[in-house]
Structure prediction request, 180 residues.
Amino acid sequence: MNNRRAVGILLSLQLVGLLLLTQTWYSIAMRVNDSRTVLGDFQGNATYAITMPVTLFLLAVTLVVFLTSVKTTRILLAIQSLVTVSLAAWIGMQVFAANVSELDTQLDRLTGIAQTHGIAGVEITTTANPWVWVTIQCLATLLCGYLATRTKGWGRATSSRTKSSNKPRSSIDLWDSQRG
Prediction:
């Protein structure tokens, strides 16, 4: 697999992660007079506000990777790998603990009761979406690390005819040969 295709896969993973942030991660309900009342369904980006700007930053870095030199690309991918694994680990811990404290103001508005600790009988149901998101982020981290440690340039694979004549086949090949 060439590097450009791998970066395309990385971009696809990040777009799927962005889509998952806008899906329901938690359903919160409470017991009122022995009946279950759903307070609301909450998306990942509403529950953990930091996820959306960081994800957009990571998407921007991936797009910049297509335009930079090999050395800069490696640095960007290494930074991206560190940011992605840090975010995935932090969100994974928050989801595991079912920490929905960032939803306090919304729950306060929905129930009229201050803070989630003041509501009796709260049921927090976690969907599969946060775990899929964390898995995708881990895959993106591995792919970033793999790309950051690649030793070859970013040009397309060349045929034996191109190698022997040392002539670029297209303007993109010429541009890639001048960057390396």
User: Anything to note?
Assistant: The chain is about 60% helix and 15% strand. Residues 155-164 have pLDDT under 50 and may be disordered. The CA atoms of residues 158 and 169 lie 9 Å apart. Residues 70-96 form the longest helix (27 residues).
